[in-house]
Amino acid sequence: MRPVTQLLLEAREAITPALRDIVDGLPDTLRRVAGYHIGWWDAEGRPISGTGKAIRPALTLACARATGGTATPGVLDAAAAVELVHDFSLLHDDVMDNDTTRRHRPSAWSVFGVDQAILTGDMLLTAAIRRLCDTDLAPVLADAVLELGTGQCADLAFEDASEVSLAECLAMAEGKTGAILGTACELGARAAGATAQAASGYRTFGRQLGVAFQIVDDALSIWGDPLRTGKPIGNDLAARKKSLPVAAALLSDTAAGRELAQVFATTDEFDQTTTARAAELVEQAGGRTWAAAEVDRRIGSALRALADLGPTPDGGAELRAIAALVTNRDH
Amino acid sequence: MRPVTQLLLEAREAITPALRDIVDGLPDTLRRVAGYHIGWWDAEGRPISGTGKAIRPALTLACARATGGTATPGVLDAAAAVELVHDFSLLHDDVMDNDTTRRHRPSAWSVFGVDQAILTGDMLLTAAIRRLCDTDLAPVLADAVLELGTGQCADLAFEDASEVSLAECLAMAEGKTGAILGTACELGARAAGATAQAASGYRTFGRQLGVAFQIVDDALSIWGDPLRTGKPIGNDLAARKKSLPVAAALLSDTAAGRELAQVFATTDEFDQTTTARAAELVEQAGGRTWAAAEVDRRIGSALRALADLGPTPDGGAELRAIAALVTNRDH
């Protein structure tokens, strides 16, 4: 099998014609915002290299292969649509979370303004669902968007909530990341002609993988290398986000967990020292260990679901490689 | 025939179960924002009376009747979906236009914050298209949303543009309002089983009516009674919007038109006196007369398109009554 980085690159290239087709259909102003956000050009429209990770379309294509299918136009459309929904959600989330950095660059709203970011997001969302409207896949994608929004709603609410249970946090992660990764997998299987039962199995694989993905994301935002992640360290901590390792630490009933709660209860803005101390406390309270164990559990269920599906050798190997990448990534 | 106000009320009531069903499916926080925006309750969730005009669903229902159909669940779903897309666009437009008043009340973002307004809009948009995903109507609605976004994009761009032609302004109005009214009509006809040709005729009727609607809207925002419109007078002028009467005045090659251009070229914020003077100049430059004549032309084409369709007597009378309401409304 090709190295997994190769797989992701291939997925990115495979969906580019469909993405271009959709983005080129936007009015000039929004086209520029969309291409900047996707990573095709800089703020002035000059071509650049380096785009997102393309894990979602890679999952769609690998699931199609795992069910014995190939990268038909229908499969590619599904993969492109899933990636566009992801792009839409990042555009709007960055506005809502006031995040000024995305993929190592200023976020779209901080370059083009909030209005353009909102409108471009609306268009990408609509175009993504529209792309699948002539198949029976559109409602699956739309349902994923609704679940994504429910997860984002919980995420916003948790910032103000004093106590959030681990179950609520995991449900949020399942909504925010599990839904769309699950749908990426389900759409790949369905577009390749899998039975409803098989498609549902691939969906389970993707959902479990998605929760693991989110936990790794949360951990990277606390302990990751900003040079690799492309996001300033401690953003989530400074925003007092109840990310999963934080929630685990706060609920740990340890001295470090109680101190963390006190730090979070202050109303001052976090400086670098406070952010570093908070990261330390999350680790001392067991948040990092819990996160690693939960990632293992989720990846374990994902791989069991996959094994039960009896995927083709190639497709199965690709999906296992993507799962390993999600666990071990540093960005 | 029932009075047209009765028609609108009936349309509103007829789609309420579908709207409720969708809004009740949202997470609590977003449900509260959506119901406030629609006009079901106040900011604290206490029931209130008085909602939007429901012109779009009334058009859907009347077009279904005009083609000999009835208000089947499919027709009602289409009408509800169109209204939800309208609600989505108002939610996001108010954020983008920084409008603090909507339907006589503080706009949703000014009560619940920008984040909640963005997210609720995303959910209503997705739920609207989702509602039609099991029919062949979803792509029609999605295309209308894309056209709506293109119109909104032009609208935002015109604020900064020094010169905008009347053709560009009319194209913008066709995108912002024509597309969705045209789609409201087309969906009603299609959901009632009309032929593609008939559906396209109803679409033309709705598009022409939509442009007339937008011109009347623009005029009301300059010369309307704020007590009736529910929006502060002169908002559009103060934002230097190239609304249609303004564009006509600026392009009029009259002394008043040139003075208006000078007033618009200043960088100071408009006070009440400047706004009142600008309104006067638009009128003196012929912007008001042009608007009235263009409304008549558009309504004329709409009614001719309708006559060519040979609608049922009841449905035709309803559509003509709605067209008359659009022309003569004061809010």
Automatic annotation (TrEMBL), chains A, B:
GO terms for molecular function: (2E,6E)-farnesyl diphosphate synthase activity; dimethylallyltranstransferase activity; geranylgeranyl diphosphate synthase activity; metal ion binding. Signal peptide: none annotated. It is an enzyme of class 2 (transferase). InterPro entries: Isoprenoid_synthase_dom_sf, Polyprenyl_synt, Polyprenyl_synt_CS. Pfam families: polyprenyl_synt. Keywords: Magnesium, Metal-binding, Transferase. The keyword Magnesium applies. It comes from the Bacteria. Its EC number is 2.5.1.1, 2.5.1.10, 2.5.1.29. The keyword Transmembrane helix does not apply. CDD domains: Trans_IPPS_HT. GO terms for biological process: isoprenoid biosynthetic process. Belongs to the FPP/GGPP synthase family. This is Geranylgeranyl diphosphate synthase type I. It comes from Kitasatospora kifunensis (Streptomyces kifunensis).
